[in-house]
């Protein structure tokens, strides 16, 4: 269909890099989102304030600025912090780490509210009932809480993951070898920008299509045995 | 954090704010003008209208804005026929390429928001309007769109803030809006912490103003909200 002038392999490699960034960032995002939800629900003032500030910043500042800030400013901030503690060291920020942490933290900020609402949606009576028949806390978590939180949170998390996927394109600005950057290199070599950027867009489209399908399957599984309002 | 540097470079970065606001306002107006007919086509019973529009929305929502911008800014330069046509006046200019990419992108998201809102207008009202002999144009301008606008507003407000943040991508095609100027200044001074902090604060102020603006519009429109 497409003549990729021998750059098909570079695009495939870039796609693999993009997928890795997505998965790592998703992991960080889920963990930090759960932490944020816990912090907000805990009612412990400093934690609540920290989470509020975090979500406020993420909602207001472009992802591109955040990525550039973490990558170019991160080592300076860490260096200043180290010298504040009395150490004199230079800390280099790895681009992959900067990209994955930034995208993960963006995901986590939005996921905080998704998890918080999902946790609150589990009826209190069910937990009390489970405790009253002698279920241990761990068992309540595993059998009552997690399956329901998962079911309530899945659609919201799915939307966030679609946004995360598209945001991975931004990390090409800090020189990671992912799909956008490898595409730009192919363009620089062949002078065929239209062909390659269209090819890249079709790859992104394929990734989002596959994710949409997987999310549908997961949602169906999560909702097994649940009656639907007509 | 050296606040003196922040103060020193603030005026220069503020010149980018004008460009950022221009990008946002032009994109929002053009995007909305494009989104309304797209939403109507998407809801249309004719497949010839709904399927191509679905394809358009699917593409623009399924791919990164950065690729869309690069297809328009770098992509079309591949063709000599484009470079020799009048289109080149726009496609060689990073400002217009940004406007085109952002408009096409936000129109796709907005059309999807509007489509859902139009569908949520109660069928009974539409039947009632038709039964008293309202023309389809009046039906839309008097019954459907005013109510759909109110339902779509929260979603549209979110989309507008996301779009405003998206305008920072214009810096990748060398447009000197807030992010572009900030990046240039950092290349000169190597003060990333202070200058990105400043840019971040500017974007946060802009998004807060936008969110307040939409709250005000929602408040003034809610008098149209039907009781019950």
TrEMBL record, chain A:
Transmembrane segments: 21-41, 53-73, 93-111, 194-218
Gene Ontology molecular functions: transmembrane transporter activity
Location of this chain's protein in the cell: Cell inner membrane; Cell membrane
Residue ranges of domain ABC transmembrane type-1 in the record: 15-215
UniProt keyword tRNA processing present: no
Pfam families: BPD_transp_1 (PF00528)
Sorted UniProt keywords: Cell inner membrane, Cell membrane, Membrane, Transmembrane, Transmembrane helix, Transport
GO cellular component annotations of the record: ATP-binding cassette (ABC) transporter complex
KW Transmembrane (keyword) present: yes
Membership in a protein family: Belongs to the binding-protein-dependent transport system permease family. HisMQ subfamily.
NCBIfam families with a match to the protein in the record: HEQRo_perm_3TM (TIGR01726)
PANTHER family linked: CATIONIC AMINO ACID TRANSPORTER, MEMBRANE COMPONENT
Name assigned to this protein: ABC transporter permease
Organism: Desulfomarina profundi
Lineage: Bacteria, Pseudomonadati, Thermodesulfobacteriota, Desulfobulbia, Desulfobulbales
From TrEMBL, chain B:
Pfam families listed in its UniProt record: BPD_transp_1
Transmembrane segments: 13-41, 53-76, 96-118, 195-214
Single GO MF descriptor: transmembrane transporter activity
Stored InterPro entries: AA_ABC_transptr_permease_3TM, ArtM/GltK/GlnP/TcyL/YhdX-like, MetI-like
UniProt keyword Hydrolase present: no
One GO-annotated biological process of the protein: amino acid transport
UniProt keyword list: Cell inner membrane, Cell membrane, Membrane, Transmembrane, Transmembrane helix, Transport
Compartments it resides in: Cell inner membrane; Cell membrane
Presence of the UniProt keyword Cytoplasm in the record: no
Residue ranges occupied by any ABC transmembrane type-1 domain in the UniProt entry: 17-214
Topology in membrane: Multi-pass membrane protein
GO cellular component: ATP-binding cassette (ABC) transporter complex
Primary subcellular site in the record, as a coarse category: membrane
Domain of life: Bacteria
UniProt-listed PROSITE patterns: ABC_TM1
Family per record: Belongs to the binding-protein-dependent transport system permease family. HisMQ subfamily.
PANTHER family linked to this entry: ARGININE ABC TRANSPORTER PERMEASE PROTEIN ARTM, MEMBRANE COMPONENT OF AMINO ACID ABC TRANSPORTER
UniProt-recorded name of the protein: ABC transporter permease
């Amino acid at each position: 269909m497409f003549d990729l002038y021998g750059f098909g392999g570079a695009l495939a490699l870039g796609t693999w890099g993009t997928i890795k960034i997505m998965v790592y960032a998703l992991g960080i995002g889920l963990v930090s989102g759960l932490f944020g939800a816990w912090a907000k629900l805990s009612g412990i003032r400093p934690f609540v304030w920290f989470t509020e500030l975090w979500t406020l910043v993420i909602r207001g500042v472009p992802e591109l600025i955040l990525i550039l800030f973490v990558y170019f400013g991160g080592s300076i901030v860490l260096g200043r912090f180290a010298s504040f503690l009395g150490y004199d060291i230079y800390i280099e920020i790895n681009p992959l780490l900067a990209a994955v942490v930034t995208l993960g933290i963006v995901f986590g900020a939005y996921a905080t509210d998704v998890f918080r609402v999902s946790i609150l949606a589990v009826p209190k009576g069910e937990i009390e009932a489970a405790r009253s028949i002698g279920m241990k806390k761990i068992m309540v978590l595993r059998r009552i809480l997690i399956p329901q939180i998962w079911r309530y949170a899945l659609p919201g998390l799915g939307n966030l993951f679609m946004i995360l996927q598209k945001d991975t394109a931004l990390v090409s600005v800090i020189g990671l070898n992912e799909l956008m950057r490898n595409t730009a290199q192919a363009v620089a070599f062949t002078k065929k920008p239209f062909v390659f950027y269209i090819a890249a867009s079709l790859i992104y489209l394929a990734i989002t299509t596959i994710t949409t399908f997987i999310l549908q399957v997961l949602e169906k599984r999560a909702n097994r045995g649940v009656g639907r309002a007509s | 954090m050296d606040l003196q540097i922040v103060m020193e470079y603030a005026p220069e970065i503020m010149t980018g704010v004008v460009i950022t606001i221009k990008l946002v306002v032009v994109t929002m107006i053009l995007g909305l003008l494009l989104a309304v007919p797209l939403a109507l086509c998407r809801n249309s019973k004719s497949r010839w209208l709904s399927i191509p529009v679905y394809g358009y929305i699917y593409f623009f929502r399924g791919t990164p804005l950065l690729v869309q911008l690069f297809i328009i800014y770098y992509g079309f330069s591949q063709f000599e026929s484009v470079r020799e046509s009048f289109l080149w006046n726009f496609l060689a200019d990073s400002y217009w390429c940004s406007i085109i990419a952002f408009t096409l992108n936000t129109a796709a998201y907005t059309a999807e928001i509007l489509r859902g809102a139009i569908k949520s207008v109660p069928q009974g009202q539409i039947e009632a309007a038709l039964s008293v002999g309202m023309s389809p144009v009046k039906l839309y301008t008097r019954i459907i769109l005013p109510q759909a606008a109110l339902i779509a507003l929260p979603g549209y407000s979110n989309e507008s803030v996301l779009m405003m943040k998206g305008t920072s991508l214009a810096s990748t095609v060398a447009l000197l809006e807030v992010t572009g100027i900030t990046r240039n200044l950092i290349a000169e001074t190597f003060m990333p912490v202070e200058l990105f902090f400043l840019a971040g604060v500017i974007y946060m102020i802009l998004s807060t103003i936008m969110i307040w603006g939409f709250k005000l519009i929602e408040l003034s429109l809610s008098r149209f909200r039907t009781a019950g």
